[in-house]
Write a structure and sequence with these properties.
The complex is a heterodimer of chains A (314) and B (215).
Chain A: H1 4-31, H2 38-63, H3 65-86, H4 94-113, H5 117-120, H6 123-138, H7 145-168, H8 182-206, H9 221-237, H10 246-274, H11 289-311
Chain B: H1 3-25, E1 28-31, E2 41-45, H2 52-59, H3 62-67, E3 68-73, H4 74-77, H5 81-90, E4 94-96, H6 107-116, E5 120-123, H7 142-149, E6 154-161, H8 163-166, E7 180-183, H9 195-207
Helix pairs in contact in B: 1-2, 1-5, 6-7
């Protein structure tokens, strides 16, 4: 499944990460020799997380379609575990929750793996939406019923439905782009994550005006605009790796950075509501899976459907 | 089974149980006013599931894990060969009999002997799994008797959050949810402190470790 473009992109990212690791190490030696500067520590933790992400993706790409589907199924599992830890449920929901993890999640990814678009596009929003509350209703406990079933459905939409649209990109049939759909995944994740990083970096350097101070004090207009522009510029310059023209790539990058930003905003609102700083602690002390993936989660289904509608034959 | 094979099997089963516990609960240890250092301790925790001691065992650093033995009910763990293997060989549990009329040995003497041999202990002072609405059942007196028998040993409170939701009593299939274990400042029996006062203080210390969101 590897294409020369993928190798170039991965080596490019590897180069950026090596540079980032060196800068991170210099900053650590200068400013935080015994871990006293939280900004430097946080930066280094993020760099490590990206290394892990890139290495896992590279392994999955080499392993082929099944490998990519499996990787994102596991990511869904970890995300769902984080999300449902924070939602409202009681003993009457035990079987619905078991079904989320051990029936809904595997089925959704089997539908993706077997390219059943007609199923994976509607399975969770239609079938699961209507049938899962029945499991909870049968147990007879009506306390907070609507809250419980709504939050469980939300968890599935975010953590399973949205995430599964990343590997689904592999199955698009774009004329002249056969055998290279893996580039769509690499491109999606690269642009969205770059936008996240650059918003963080520009925000730290020049951030003055908070966008939503009650939600996330670290999100500023300066950081957002400059970060998104940087990601759009870099993403557009890589148009030749994609099925898009230069102008189309620019529009697509703008869409991706906007959706990624919205994802961060909405997921922050949920965290605020539940009184937590991070979704989990998968990377000791540096947040959970959803914290790193919130922007990709929001961007993936829109990217999938826009690409499918305008470029794909299926 | 030969002893060598048995200990290899025990090691493998212990690792498998630990990996499964990590997969289901991604357990996170919060050390609050205490460090994870290899020092002799009695960990006492709230008890809502059979997985409780597995989680404590899983989040301890490997060197400490080998030194730490759960205190478990003989009348539960010796009821089948598989349970006996897991209780004895895998977790090296100190098995005590909860039924006074059947006892061959005094439970406090058994625990004190394990401490004298250099082990740390995991203890559930409620004496049984709690499936009630109240966060803690009244403590049994074992913790007090142990604290007066070995007054210098650190008694470390451990609050296990969320495991009761992973596997509510009576359910067969667990649901994966993140659990946290909060380890608190060690306590000791104060001079002149009587049993109700000490047990009350121990329960309050443990309850104080509950994560805010659960209250």
């Amino acid at each position: 499944m590897t294409s020369p473009h993928l190798l170039w992109l991965l080596s490019g990212i590897g180069g950026i990460l090596i540079l980032a690791s060196i800068i991170g190490e210099i900053l650590r030696l200068r400013l935080s020799p015994s871990g006293e500067n939280p900004v430097v520590e946080n930066l280094n933790a993020r760099i490590t997380a990206w290394w892990v992400m890139v290495i896992l993706l590279a392994i999955a790409f080499v392993a082929g379609k099944a490998g990519v589907v499996l990787l994102f199924a596991l990511a869904s599992f970890a995300a769902l575990r984080e999300f449902l830890t924070l939602t409202t449920h009681n003993r009457a929901d035990h079987w619905s929750l078991v079904a989320c993890f051990f029936v809904v999640l595997p089925l959704q990814y089997i539908f993706v793996l077997t390219d059943l678009y007609g199923m994976y596009a509607v399975f969770i929003p239609v079938y699961v939406f209507l049938l899962l509350p029945v499991l909870s209703a049968l147990r007879g406990d009506t306390r907070d019923f609507l809250v419980r079933v709504s939050e469980t459905q939300w968890a599935l939409m975010i953590c399973v439905y949205c995430v599964s649209h990343v590997p689904a990109l592999l199955y698009l049939r774009i004329p002249g782009f056969e055998g290279r759909t893996v580039m769509l995944i690499a491109y999606l994740i690269f642009v969205v994550q770059l936008s996240d990083v650059m918003q963080y970096v520009w925000g730290k350097l020049l951030g003055r005006t908070p966008i939503a101070p009650s939600l996330s004090p670290s999100k500023t207009w300066e950081g957002f605009i400059l970060g998104a522009l940087t990601a759009v510029a870099v993403g557009t310059s890589l148009w030749w790796m994609t099925p898009f023209s230069m102008l189309q790539a620019a529009a697509m990058c703008l869409l991706l950075t906007m959706m990624g930003f919205f994802g961060g905003l909405v997921m922050s609102a949920i965290k605020r509501d539940r009184g937590v700083k991070d979704w989990g602690h998968l990377i000791a002390g540096h947040g959970g899976f959803i914290d790193r993936l919130d922007s990709v989660i929001f961007a993936a289904p829109i990217f999938f459907h826009v690409t499918r509608y305008f470029w794909s034959l299926t | 089974m030969s002893p060598a094979l048995r200990s290899i099997a025990a090691l493998a089963v212990g690792q498998a149980i630990s990996v499964f516990a990590r997969f289901m609960t991604a357990p996170r240890a919060i050390w609050q006013g205490i460090e994870p250092v290899p020092k002799q301790r009695v960990y006492f925790a709230n008890h809502s599931s059979n997985g409780d001691f597995v989680l404590i065992w899983t989040v301890l650093p490997a060197a400490m894990r080998r030194q730490t033995r759960p205190v478990a009910a003989l009348d539960y763990w010796l009821t089948s060969p598989l349970r006996a293997f897991i209780g004895r060989a895998v977790f090296n549990a100190v098995l005590i009999d909860r039924r006074p009329e059947n006892r061959a040995e005094d439970p406090v003497a058994q625990m004190a002997a394990a401490l004298d041999a250099g082990s740390s202990l995991i203890l559930f002072p409620e004496g049984q799994r709690n499936s009630a609405e109240a966060p803690l059942l009244p403590f049994k007196s074992g913790l007090y008797h142990l604290a007066s028998a070995r007054p210098s040993v650190d008694l470390v409170p451990v609050w296990i959050a969320n495991l009761n939701k992973v596997m509510p009593k009576g359910e067969i299939i667990p649901v994966p949810l993140i659990c946290t274990l909060t380890f608190g400042t060690p306590m000791h029996l104060a001079p002149g402190e009587d049993k109700p006062a000490f047990l009350g203080r121990a329960a309050a210390t443990l309850l104080a470790l509950r994560p805010k969101a659960q209250e």
